[in-house]
Task: structure prediction
Amino acid sequence: MGGDIIEAVDGKAIASSEDLANEIGAHKPGQTITIKLRRATGKGAYKQMSVQVTLGSRPNSIPNPNTPGG
Result:
């Protein structure tokens, strides 16, 4: 398992996936937010970084590649 560890959104600490969902949900599509995160370097260590992302709209459903049209 891998991936980034999100520590803050626009300066607000993130302690759980629920915190992350609430912070993202408090913003509108098209807004730009700053995410502070730790990214694995592949050498057993993490690199701290901040990235700016522009939010898109959330789809009503997630496409399923195993069904026709989805």
